[in-house]
Amino acid sequence: MYYTLRELARTCDVHAIVMLDYAREREANEELRRFCRSVEFVVHRNDRDPHLGSIRPHAAHEFYTAELEWLIQRQILLHRIDVVQLEYTALGQYARKFNRVVLRAF
Fold first, then answer.
1. Is the CB of residue 89 less than 8 Å from the CB of residue 60?
2. If residue 17 lies in a helix (H) or strand (E), which one and from where to where?
3. Spatial contact of 12 and 6, defined as CB atoms under 8 Å apart
4. Per-residue pLDDT, 1
């Protein structure tokens, strides 16, 4: 991700939302601020509840937080973002239909 963001930042404004496994990883990722227009960090919650009776996939449950959903939409609005890249399939649940925003999962 680091090199992708660094190269992308040469040609466009990059606003990154970084999901961390642990709060202690934040310091190691602060370097992104050197070339990203803005960087927000969200610590991934460690939910051990297996949700055995749910029709929702485990990965979707594991990576969902209302905070991240709100933060993505807030960043789009505040920074007038026109392209959103979701790095992992499990983050595809944050995709929304926007009239003037391209949203892709990679």
1. no
2. strand 15-20
3. no
4. 77
The dihedral through the CA atoms of 105, 11, 98, 80 has a sign that is positive
Summarised one tens digit per residue, pLDDT across range 57-98 is 777 777 788 888 889 889 988 999 888 887 777 777 777 777
CB atoms within 10 A of CB 67: 12
Q: Which two tokens stand for residue 20?
A: 């961390």
Residue 10 CB partners (closer than 8 Å, separation 6+) = none
Q: What is the value of pTM for the model shown? A: 0.78
Q: Decide: 92 and 84 in contact? Cβ < 8 Å.
A: no
Query: Of the candidates 67, 98, 68, 93, which has an alpha carbon nearest to the alpha carbon of residue 81?
Result: 98
Whole-angstrom Cα distance, residue 91 to residue 78? Answer: 21
Tokens at 42, concatenated: 């969200």
| pLDDT above 90 (res 29) | yes
